[in-house]
Amino acid sequence: MPSLSPSVRKSITLIYHFAERESKSRYKRSVLGWFWSFLNPLVTVGVYWFVFGAIYGAAPPETSNHNAESFGLYLFTGLIIWTLFTGMVDGSMEWLSSVSDLRKKIYFPTETALLGGAASNLVQSSLEVVVLLVIMAALSNIGWTLVFLPVAMALALGFGLGLGFIVSVLNARYRDVKYLVGIVLNVAFFAVPIVYTPELIKRDDLPVPEIARILVEWNPVSLFIEISRDAVYFLQVPLWNRFLAALAWSVATFSIGWVFFRRQSMSISEEP
């Protein structure tokens, strides 16, 4: 088996160090530390469950064993993917900014900073997955389809990081990009079926334009979320056309973002 080249080994080492740096700085001087990784999503899910499940009476879809029908769990399976995706997009701008002084002094593959941050973000999302799986196991709503959950996470990571490569470069030149991205993500949250079921927008008694229904059902983040829900909540194999569409979105976006970032990596080192 051929050994890795020195440049590849160096890049892997840098990614590890940037990931370690991001992980340590995330909860620096925090008493609870990584416990916030569990508490934050649970509180968020609790708030959404109370508003949409308890107050508005949104009914969760049925699970395979009819024991895990909870709007909170339905929310949680979607929110994990959404948080992972937005973490890649928002985080990429921060990760690049955090090495702005360093990249002016010495040369190193700038993308390693973003890949290291992505690795750290993936660890946090994995902790949230552990919480979800423990709950599902306690409710006996668990099966072999769980193998598709890390696939959904990988697809969301690739898509989010691809966008992150692009917006991080643009943000290095125009600081308004960070605020614009924040607004777009806030709006986009309601374009994916997290706090509502996909069936809701298909109802004939709702004045929803057909183009809006198509965008909600087939936008890439919705695809990733539905794959994760099929795997964990419904315990069924994702639809093949949904899976192929999600794969195409993720691979294409990551590839475009990677090429764009690599071409701009030298010029952005000169940005203040």
Q: Give the helix level as a range of percent.
A: over 70%
Q: Radius of gyration from the CA trace?
A: 20 Å
Give the SSE order as H and E letters: HHHHHHHHHH
Number of strands: 0
Helices and strands: which structural class? Answer: mainly alpha
**Quick check: average pLDDT?**
83
Distance between the termini: 44 Å
Most strands sheet: none
Describe the structure.
The chain has about 270 residues and is mostly helical. It is about 70% helix and about 0% strand. The protein has one domain. It has ten helices and no strands. The model has no long low-confidence stretch (mean pLDDT about 85).
Concise structural overview:
The protein has 272 residues and is mainly α. It is built from ten helices and no strands.
